[in-house]
Design goal:
Elements: E1 4-8, H1 18-34, E2 39-43, H2 54-65, H3 81-99, E3 102-108, H4 116-125, E4 145-151, H5 169-178, E5 186-191, H6 206-224, H7 231-238
Parallel strand pairs: 1-2, 1-3, 3-4, 4-5
C-alpha cells in the first residue's frame, strides 16, 4: 500500500500559513488518488518534538560504541529513566518515517533556514543507526520520495539580491542526499514573496507573489497526483 507521511512545521497554525495551505492541497490530491488508508499527518507545532538533551546524546554515543545496534536492542542499552524516555520519544518517530513511501514536508523559511520545529524532528529521527540497514550499511531512506514545500516571505531565486541567503533548501537537499535519497526523488516546491500582501513596502511585488503561489499550487497538485519515480515529469508539466 502506498503511504504518505505529512509533516507541517510552520509555527503559525492558522489558515494564513502558506506552507500549510500547500501541504494540505498536496494531501487532498494524494488521498484522492491513493485513498486515505496510507495517510498520516504530524503537526510539529501542535505536537512539538522535544529538542535533544544529554540523555539522547549519551544513549546515542553508547550505541555508536557498540558499532550500532538494531532498534530493538537499544532499550537494553539505556541505563536510566531519562535515557529510556529519550528512546521512547525517538523510536515512534523513526518508525513512522520508515513506514512511509513518500515524505511531505511543509517547510517555511525562518531567518534564512528551516524552522526549529522541523530541525528538532530531523535531529531526533537521525539517531545513530536508526536510519541505517545494519546488514548492508545503506540508508533506509534511499528508496523514499521526499517533497519539500517551501514558503518564504521574500525572494531568493536566481538573480535576486538575496539569492545566496537561502540556507534552507541547500540544507534539506544535503541532509537527504547524505541519507541516500536520490536527487531525482527529492522535489522542492517554492512559494516566494508570501508577505507581499501584508507588507506595504512589498506592494509592488504582489503580482509576482500571486504568480509564485499559483505556480506552487499547480506543481503541488501535479506532484501529488503521481507515484514515486514519476514526479520529475510532473514538475515539468507544472511549469
Amino acid at each position: 500500500m502506498t503511504s504518505l507521511l505529512h509533516l507541517d512545521s510552520s509555527a503559525n497554525q492558522s489558515g494564513e500559513s502558506v506552507s500549510r495551505q500547500l501541504t494540505a492541497l498536496f494531501a487532498r490530491t494524494w488521498q484522492t488518488v491513493h485513498g486515505t488508508a496510507g495517510y498520516r499527518r504530524r503537526d510539529l507545532a501542535a505536537d512539538p518534538v522535544p529538542p535533544l538533551d544529554t540523555a539522547y546524546c549519551t544513549l546515542g554515543r553508547r550505541v555508536e560504541r557498540k558499532g550500532l545496534v538494531p532498534p530493538g536492542a537499544v532499550p537494553a542499552l539505556a541505563e536510566n529513566p531519562a535515557e529510556e524516555r529519550a528512546w521512547a520519544l525517538t523510536r515512534p518517530l523513526v518508525a513512522e518515517l520508515l513506514a512511509a513511501d513518500t515524505l511531505l514536508i511543509g517547510a517555511p523559511m525562518y531567518n534564512y533556514s528551516v524552522s526549529g520545529l522541523l530541525k528538532a524532528w530531523i535531529d531526533r529521527v537521525t539517531f545513530p543507526g536508526a536510519l541505517t540497514d545494519l546488514g548492508t550499511g545503506q540508508s533506509l531512506l534511499r528508496g523514499k520520495r521526499v517533497v519539500v514545500v517551501s514558503s518564504r516571505g521574500g525572494a531568493y531565486g536566481p538573480g535576486t539580491p538575496r539569492e545566496g541567503w537561502d540556507f534552507q533548501t541547500p540544507y534539506l537537499r544535503a541532509y537527504f542526499a547524505d541519507h541516500g535519497v536520490p536527487k531525482e526523488n527529492l522535489s522542492v516546491v517554492r512559494a516566494e514573496l508570501t508577505v507581499a500582501d501584508i507588507v506595504p513596502q512589498l506592494e509592488r511585488f504582489r503580482p509576482q507573489a500571486a504568480d509564485s503561489l499559483a505556480a506552487a499550487r499547480a506543481e503541488v497538485e501535479a506532484l501529488a497526483a503521481v507515484g514515486a519515480g514519476t514526479h520529475d515529469r510532473a514538475r515539468s508539466a507544472a511549469r
